[in-house]
Specification:
The chain is α/β, with parallel strands linked by helices and about 350 residues long. The chain folds into 2 domains: about 40-170 and about 295-335, Vaccinia Virus protein VP39 (Rossmann fold), CATH 3.40.50; about 175-290, no CATH class. It has helices at about 20-25, 40-55, 75-80, 100-105, 110, 145-155, 175-190, 195-210, 215-240, 245-255, 265-295, 295-310, and strands spanning about 5, 10, 65, 90-95, 115-120, 135-140, 160-170, 310-320, 325-335. Bound molecules: S-adenosylmethionine (SAM).
């Protein structure tokens, strides 16, 4: 199969139906990490400082495991600290999605080379020996899974005396708020006629230019009008929305398609329309998963009680905040693995 379509590289949209297809789609793009808003440089810095302190406290040569690593945004922070050590850390990152950070991420290439990635690997069945790791971490990932089994695995592979730190989504945090709005925007667009009218518009425009009859030109004009109505209705629907990033990016992508008809075949334009729809579908699935994953106080308490039952001790729970407004972006859960799990026989 050719890897080019009209001079355009074949899009790398993973196979639908695969486990966590929606995340594989995301990680097959040039993104180092997920969830944090693009404009959250300050918040990101707050989180970065906390992670830095955690990795700084690890011994030389520590073995570190990042659960739900994605494209390795958190793991690379461990690599940066490791480089200051006489004996570097060994850092593993697991993710159930189809990840290939070296192939898709253009930034941090050097740091990414310091991580051993394990794609298509569930954190609920880790391929590591008991007590292998000095530290187990997760950033916005463990709460997406069956927490009871993921925590059991995390504590199993952690050494006695080893430490863990998890950053989890908060049910009342700003990330979830943003997620809810974008999820409803995505759902509304997916249910609208946007993609059907765009495809029809592309066909009618190409036909009108190829078969220059009055009928074909009139059909093209009708298709332009129909497309305008769909856009106007959607614009009305999203007019008051505080965050328009999803809508604006999507509309911009769709609006460039007609202008590409002289350099691309109709078949390519139609498949590009379908790709945009699939990307939106994947985004919608991720946004819904994030909403389901966010922990309220009751589930956070349950989460902490699982850790205690598995031998976690010195448990600390604190809110993660961003910037001067101290917006909540999640909860930190940290602690160590005690010598013996509660209820274990000597
Ligand atoms: C919100 S992303 C976070 C990624 C990364 N930690 C970051 O901060 O950028 C959640 C990740 O958890 C992964 N995930 C979900 N369920 C999983 C499972 N059972 N085992 C391993 N990874 C899983 C997803 O594929 C996704 O990459």
């Amino acid at each position: 199969m050719s890897d080019k379509r009209d001079g355009r590289p074949e899009a790398a949209i993973p196979q639908r139906g695969d486990a966590l297809w929606e995340w594989s789609v995301f990680w097959h793009s040039d993104q180092l990490q997920a969830c944090l808003p693009e404009d959250s440089a300050v918040g990101d810095q707050n989180l970065h400082t906390t992670w830095r302190a955690f990795f700084d406290a690890l011994p030389d040569g520590a073995e570190v495991l990042d659960l739900g690593t994605g494209n390795g945004g958190l793991a690379t922070q461990a690599v940066a600290v490791s480089r200051t050590r006489a004996t570097p850390f060994t850092i593993h990152g697991v993710d159930l999605a189809d990840i290939a950070p070296a192939q898709f991420v253009s930034s941090a290439k050097d740091l990414l080379a310091g991580v051993v990635f394990h794609g298509r690997t569930s954190m609920q069945a880790l391929p590591f020996a008991d007590g292998k790791f000095d530290a187990v971490v997760s950033q916005y990932a463990i709460e997406y899974t069956n927490v009871e089994s993921s925590l059991a695995e995390a504590l199993r592979v952690l050494k006695v005396g080893g430490c863990f730190r998890f950053l989890v989504h908060a049910d009342d945090g700003v990330l979830k708020q943003r997620c809810c709005l974008q999820a409803s925007q995505a759902e509304h667009i997916l249910k609208s006629d946007l993609f059907i009218t765009t495809e029809s518009l592309l066909h009618r425009l190409v036909e009108a230019e190829t078969i220059r009859t009055g009928t074909k030109i009139a059909e093209a004009e009708e298709a332009i009008a129909a497309s305008r109505v769909v856009f106007d209705n959607l614009e009305d629907r999203f007019a008051g929305d505080e965050d328009r990033s999803l809508v604006d990016n999507l509309f911009a992508a769709i609006r460039t398609l007609p202008g590409m008809r002289r350099s691309h075949s109709i078949a390519t334009l139609v498949s590009m329309t379908e790709e945009i729809r699939l990307l939106l579908l994947a985004q919608s699935k991720r946004l819904n998963a994030m909403q389901d994953a966010a922990l309220d106080i009751a589930s956070l308490t349950e989460f902490a009680s699982y850790i205690k039952a598995l031998g976690g001790s010195q448990l600390e729970l604190e809110q993660a905040t961003t910037g001067t407004a101290a917006n909540c972006v999640g909860h930190w859960l940290s602690g160590t693995k005690a010598a013996k799990a509660k209820g274990m026989q000597a």
